[in-house]
Amino acid sequence: MFYREVGQFKTSYGADQAIFPIAQDRWFVIALIAFAFLGVPLFAGQYLYTEMLIPVLILSIAAIGLNILTGYCGQLSLGSGGFMAVGAYAAYNLALRLPETNIILVFLFAGVMAMLVGLLFGLPSLRIKGFYLAVATLASQFFLEWAFARVKWFTNYAPSGSVAVSRIELFGFPIDTPAKTYIFVLAIAVVLALAAKNLVRGRIGRMWMAIRDMDIAAEIIGIRPLHAKLSAFAVSSFYIGVAGALWAFLRLGSWEPLAFDVNRSFQVLFMIIIGGLGTILGSFLGAAFIVLIPICLNQLPSWLGIAMSTAMISHIEFMLFGAIIVFFLIVEPHGLARLWAIAKEKLRLWPFPY
Amino acid sequence: MRAPSGRDTVAGDVLLAVENVSLAFGGVKAVSGVSFDIRKGEIRAIIGPNGAGKTSMLNVINGFYQPQQGRITFKGKPRATMRPYEAALGGIARTFQNVALFKGMTALDNIMAGRTLKMRRGFFWQLLRLGPALAEEIEQRHRVEEIIDFLKIQHIRKIQVGKLPYGLQKRVELGRALAMEPDLLLLDEPMAGMNLEEKEDMSRFILDVNAHYGTTIALIEHDMGVVMDLSDRVLVLDHGIKIADGTPTEVQADQAVIDAYLGLSH
Amino acid sequence: MLGPILETLIGGLMTGVLYSLVALGFVLIFKASGVFNFAQGAMVLFAALSFARLSEFMPLVIAFALSVLIMIALAYAIEFLVLRHLVNQEGIILFMATLGIAYFLEGFGQTVWGSDIYKISLGLPTNPIFILESVFPGGLLIDPVELIAATICAVMVLVLAVFFQVTRVGRALRAVADDHQAAQSVGIPLNQIWLMVWAVSGLVALVAGMMWGAKLGVQFSLSLIALKALPVLILGGFTSIPGAIVGGLIVGAGEKLAEVLLAPVLIRTFDLAGGGIENWFAYVLALVFLLFRPQGLFGERIIERV
């Protein structure tokens, strides 16, 4: 009885097309964001920041990127890891060679570089569909992995092949504590999520979804597949590149190309499958899910009082992932986001059964 | 439905001229040497037994297939090979036998998608969704709502089209085609799978579109009653060849047509 | 100069045959059920692990027989737990389900059988064979394991190709691949068909696993070899058994030759830290190929009708 639209009439199309047309939703999200910015820092400890909140937020950005390409536009990509690497190394090289550059510009540059590479590897998608495209994106993944491992210029001729960055500053204000890093990443995530939401509910989003649902029909109403697919690749790669740079600078600190290998690509893909293809919310939910499950699993043996080797834990993790993915695909192929929507539907009737 | 006394033939200019078009898939000849025209403002029916090449003909007109031979002139300009979106740009819209809607989107979004060509605002305005982009979105919504009112589908506009019954899907598809404000509207069996009441509704819509918006319409249809009542002129195809072309009454009496339908000639 | 190149070529062709064997498993399942089985690699690993561990304490033949049974049981489980519930779903959902199965199998296999590196000793001759000693000094080196694998693979290909084309079951399998619903409505028992196909594919995975395992030892990275089968499928077409062979040969020979011939050039030109072109060469080759012939050498041209 709380979650009702009684009395909420839309008197303009603008109101009808808002992101959260139902007032209760709007308040909930505003409260959530306020809590995230103001409430969390009051009690969160370092572990919560570095192991949970920051990874989830950064990977959510990557998940939004992949969701735009795969969930909204229907172009299956297994190359996310490679594009994160492009962002990471682009940012690294810019920060290294032009150290005075503003950090926002560095991350923007990372996104732009990833976007350009994404456009290049996205060109084949005009002729290739479905699984073929997935394999083509593997080409980009393996090639980029190799390039960052072998082309010495990228790693500034580091003998070990790994690179490191120092802490960053924003307009002279150092971001050196987990709390500050969290706020910084949160702000970026909120802005990027809002931008993505605006894109997908407008003309461009409809264009993408049309290509996904039936590209032949899309062409007949005047959508150019070239335009749509390339723009999806471009925007998607931008997001993934930014996420890669954030991941490298603010989560890892020092890294090798292995941090962005094909397993990372699968990780991001799983996030959007479990979270919900074609939703922005799902990107966040899926990222949270994928990050938190291994943490829970790691704690599980001690909770249960059983001793287990790390190798065994990792095997069980694999098994659990696989089982959960299959479970979701059978029960709710549209992921956590759909479960959330269904819950809200039920909530509208609560406490009545129907 | 209207009285069977027939419509006044609108003597408009030729909008689309098909000259000697042939289309083959490998060894299968879908269309052989067909020539006809469509005049501005008329309702043209294309009929014929199954496999006559009617859908292939429509596919050629809107650029989906390229004919091996022949020429098509649209709005006075001859066309070379054309991609479907160029046909869309030129003002040709169509619907399909098996409803080609975007199943993952709502009815409203499907029809809004039809407005794509009318929407100009660039990428960065879309990102912010303030000012010009928002204004454009709302303006297009107004137009789309007019179409929704016209087709009486207000109650389903927020429903995902995959969940709609077949008859309503066809209406949404018509709406999407109308959203393009086309000069030429190609309808591929718009009445297929409908009951009598639905057919009456759809017929009324087609006539209204033609009268109200002045849209030229070409439709493939099997229901003879519909064809007789709606169309100004009829083209009859059989095995890819034109066997008759004229007003409904003329065609109805044509012996070759009767033979084709009874399966006598081949 | 020619000698080493020829040797590399032969070695590459042999490796290619092994790729083909893995690709064959993909083709079978895709041809018969329209599902792109990403779990094929994990199946190879699982089969190899089973065989390796079982053969540690029982005769090879019994170990093989047991492994076959295990793979059939696996096929049963997959059909019952997963596939049955996903009938008529879109291809992408099924593909992702096989991704899930792949992850599960990898974890499961290593939980049950352990995660060390295990040896498979098939009693095959390991001394290298030298041929054409009269033409090239020292002769060209051939690995007998690969030679035997190549022969086995060729035989399997022949049998499977005949099976698909000629028998009634084979026809039914092709029908299922085209359209699940239609096949069901004609009375084809979907469950049994899928069971059979996954079982046969499991067998192929077992043989591939044994061959690869004998060559490299059975370890986790075996499942990555399956990823390598993907370019093979692109070159050969997803639905063609002969295509899997030809594709495998091209990929195997191609990447070895690229490593030997192309890598030094690249290293010099771009001042690279080492080669490793093998990692991506096959994929880029496949990608280029896709641009010109999306359906592969032998695959079916997809004509979209509206």
User: Are there runs of chain C of 5+ residues with pLDDT below 50, and where?
Assistant: none
Largest sheet of chain A: 2 strands, antiparallel
Q: Helix coverage percent of residues of chain C?
A: over 70%
Largest sheet of chain C: 2 strands, antiparallel
H/E topology pattern of chain A: HHHHHHEEEHHHEHHHH
- Rg of chain C is 20 Å
By oligomeric state, this entry counts as: heterotrimer
Alpha plus pi helix count of chain C = 11
Question: Can you tell me the CATH class of chain A?
Answer: Mainly Alpha
The assigned structural class of chain C equals mainly alpha
Number of strands of chain A: 4
How many structural domains are formed by the residues of chain C? Answer: 1
Helix-strand string of chain C: HHHHEEHHHHHHH
Low-confidence stretches of chain A: none
Radius of gyration of chain A: 21 Å
As laid out across the biggest beta sheet of chain C, the strand order is: 1-2
CATH architecture of chain A: Orthogonal Bundle
β-sheet strand percentage of chain C: under 5%
Number of domains of chain A: 1
How many helices of chain A in DSSP terms? 13
Question: Mind sketching the topology for me?
Answer:
The complex is a heterotrimer of chains A (about 350), B (about 270) and C (about 300).
Chain A (H helix, E strand, L loop, with lengths): L12 H4 L6 H21 L2 H27 L7 H18 L5 H20 L7 H21 L12 E2 L3 E3 L2 E3 L2 H23 L2 H18 L4 H28 L1 E2 L6 H14 L4 H25 L5 H22 L3 H15 L5
Helix pairs in contact in A: 3-7, 3-8, 3-9, 3-10, 3-11, 4-5, 4-6, 4-9, 5-9, 8-9, 10-11, 10-13, 11-12, 11-13
Chain B lengths: L13 E12 L2 E12 L3 E5 L6 H8 L7 E6 L2 E3 L4 H7 L1 E3 L12 H8 L8 H6 L2 H21 L14 H14 L4 E5 L7 H18 L2 E5 L3 H7 L2 E6 L2 E6 L1 H6 L1 H8 L4
Parallel strand pairs in B: 3-8, 3-9, 6-7, 7-8
Antiparallel strand pairs in B: 1-2, 1-4, 4-5, 9-10
Helix pairs in contact in B: 3-6, 5-6
Chain C lengths: L1 H32 L6 H15 L5 H22 L9 H23 L15 E3 L8 E3 L1 H23 L1 H11 L1 H6 L4 H27 L5 H15 L4 H30 L7 H15 L14
Antiparallel strand pairs in C: 1-2
Helix pairs in contact in C: 1-5, 1-6, 1-8, 1-9, 1-10, 2-3, 2-4, 2-8, 2-9, 3-8, 5-6, 5-8, 6-8, 9-10, 9-11, 10-11
